[in-house]
Design goal:
Layout (H helix, E strand, L loop, with lengths): L5 H4 L20 H17 L5 H27 L7 H31 L5 H28 L4
Helix pairs in contact: 2-3, 2-5, 3-4, 4-5
Length: 153
């Protein structure tokens, strides 16, 4: 009969560190979240921000989320979490809250897209705003996937 030691009794999977972050769900979503969020910020900035109240919030959410997600990714790559269960809670809360903020930003960006249809620079601004709306909703979806997939590990 095999004895059950402390390591065998633990059923919780270890948090990834190093390159394993890119191969483990939900942590593999962090890099696409950063890239899509960066595209949101770039595309909105390229429109010359025709609707500052709407698109200012979009740029704030996208830039802040990119920076915090980058710090989170770097902390996973370095192994700063030291396999603490609190990091799963922190990760889930951050991605859940960011998904809500990104949903508000995506809706405001969609509104700015609709309003830019009647702008004097119709083709370039409308196309950039449409692309920014697409990436904002895609980024929202990635944050939602990340937040909920932590529970199904």
């Amino acid at each position: 009969m095999a004895s059950v030691g402390p390591s065998a009794a633990s059923t919780q999977p270890a948090l990834p560190s190093g390159p394993a972050v890119f191969k483990t769900i939900p942590y593999a979503f962090i890099l696409p979240e950063i890239l899509c969020g960066t595209w949101v910020w770039i595309l909105v900035a390229a429109t010359s921000v025709s609707f500052p109240l709407l698109q200012g919030w979009v740029m704030y959410v996208s830039l802040t989320s990119c920076l915090i997600s980058l710090l989170l990714l770097l902390s996973y790559l370095v192994g700063f979490h030291r396999n603490s269960e609190n990091w799963k809670v922190l990760d889930s809360l951050y991605h859940g809250a960011t998904a809500i903020l990104y949903m508000s930003a995506a809706v405001l960006q969609a509104n700015a897209t609709i309003n830019s249809e009647f702008d004097s620079n119709v083709p370039p601004n409308y196309q950039l705003n449409s692309a920014a709306s697409f990436f904002a909703f895609l980024t929202t979806f990635l944050y939602i996937l990340h937040a909920f997939s932590i529970y199904y590990q």
